[in-house]
Design goal:
Elements lengths: L1 H22 L2 H29 L7 H23 L5 H16 L3 H4 L11 H29 L11 H35 L7 H19 L8 H28 L8
Helix pairs in contact: 1-2, 1-4, 2-3, 3-4, 3-6, 4-6, 6-7, 6-9, 7-8, 8-9
Amino acid sequence: MLIGFAYVALWAAVMMYFVYLRRGWEWAGQTATGLSLALLGLLAAALISRGMAAGRWPLVNHYEVSLLFTWMIVAAYLLLEASWRERRAGAFVLPIALAMATYAVTRPAADQAIAPLPPALRSPWFQVHVLSAMLGYGTCGVAAGLGVMWWAQRAPGDGGQEGFADTVERMMVRAVVWGFPWLTLGILAGVIWAQDAWGRYWGWDPKETWALITWLWYLLILHAQALRGWRGRRMAGLAIVGLGIVLFTFVGVPWLVRVVRLESLHTP
């Protein structure tokens, strides 16, 4: 029930952000922000309720983690919105959260059912791993949305010394800077958890390999943003492709493992 209300609130927030983008009506922007805050509260309450019912952290399957991913995208965006004082970005970032929420709510009933905690996941490092990774992924979603915004809103000026596109790019890089330490912590916690669970720190499992590729991609962005030739459209492109890598790591790798029947200890 709470998840359904949160999903409706997310749809409404996306629509209000688009109204604000197109019309510039302040009430629409304020409503969009309010709806985003409401859906954060509803989604948090739903996850907490699910965790209490299961007697564990709600981080076991793709359904639960997708809802957390959605929460992290919206939370990271609202933090950026508050620091930037710019609501137009919501029309580009919130649809990414909506896509992830749609993926979650359309999972089969068997995936949405509360399942017991597998023995391999009974480690505090597993919780640190998932929470850190999802926080990092959430900021990646924000960066990608800003990359799309850069392409769509290059021309307008923001009244300052630099163009609006330059401001969007700075916020895009800021989102990556916010998220990269959490991506790093997610990998480090995952390494420790793997040692606890399987007796080895790293095994070049498909999921581990793509998590490393994701980390290296955002490390590339942090280095490239200091190079003049990689500013602007290239930087926006890197951020957008980065989200594609994140989504492949999160959704594509488990699917590929099942279809190709690769060996993986991370298959849900």
